[in-house]
Amino acid sequence: MEEHTIMSDSNKLPNINTEFISTIQNFFNQYKEKVSALYDSKNFHFDAPDDLKNTDIHYYINRLNQRIENESMAIEFYYGMPSSLWTPYGKIRLVKGDCWYANDGYDKKKELENFIKENFLTSELIPLTKNFDGEYGPVYQINKIGEKELEPVKIISDQYFLIDYEKGQNFVEELKKRFE
Questions:
Q1: How far apart are CA 37 and CA 21, in angstroms?
Q2: Positive/negative CA dihedral, 75, 78, 83, 88
Q3: Contact in structure between 102 and 45 (CB atoms under 8 Å)
Q4: Cα separation, 64 vs 5, whole angstroms
Q5: Contact assessment for residue 85 and residue 75, using Cβ atoms and an 8 Å cutoff
Q6: Helix or strand or coil: residue 165?
Q7: Tens of pLDDT, residues 12-58
């Protein structure tokens, strides 16, 4: 039977670094601008959240409740579209609403993926996985945002991290206050 570490004390949550918050905000602003330019059609129902204060943030990055332990980021794709940004503060949803379809979608999906790869010097962290449950990934490590080079992603993966729900939600609310 696997051991689980219950993180019930808020000291186990990461400290919020104002400089790194600016880096996340910089990524988001560039991403949102590109999404807005590509997907202004009524035929394509894909949009970035209006801002980081009003999007979903989870204090874990995947179903295993794993977390990034350093100041790095990765972008997760789902069915060929960016779905979330992995950060040391958790997973930030990059999609507004639930619709991802369009008649002219494939070329725009590739253009957005290429924009992300070229502008953030990404490298593949986790390959695309297709199974009976769906299509997940790939996940790309973000190596550079503007002039700022990021550390390689380090994922806490040797055990599950179960954080008290209320403390996790309080952490997310404090984090959202820091975004523009």
A1: 24
A2: negative
A3: yes
A4: 13
A5: yes
A6: helix
A7: 677 888 888 899 999 988 988 888 777 765 555 566 777 787 787 77
Q: Which of 119, 36, 132, 22 is closest to 71 using CA atoms?
A: 22
Question: Residue 31 and residue 84: Cα distance in Å, rounded?
Answer: 11
Which amino acid type is present at position 40? D
Question: Cβ distance 18 to 178 under 8 Å?
Answer: yes
Number of residues assigned to the chain: 180
Cα–Cα distance measured from residue 17 to residue 115, given in angstroms and rounded to the nearest whole number: 27
Cα distance from N-terminal residue to C-terminal residue, the chain: 44
Q: Which two tokens stand for residue 57?
A: 């943030």
Q: Please indicate, yes or no, whether the overall pTM of this predicted structure exceeds 0.90.
A: no
Dist. CA 112–CA 97, nearest whole Å: 18
pLDDT at 44: 53
d(CA 176, CA 87): 13
Question: Tell me: the pLDDT tens digits for 146-172?
Answer: 889 999 998 876 455 566 778 778 888
E strands in 2-127 = 4-7, 57-58, 67-68, 73-78, 81-87, 90-93, 123-126
Count helices and strands in the chain by DSSP H and E runs: 3, 13
Residues forming beta bridges with residue 4, ordered by sequence position: 160
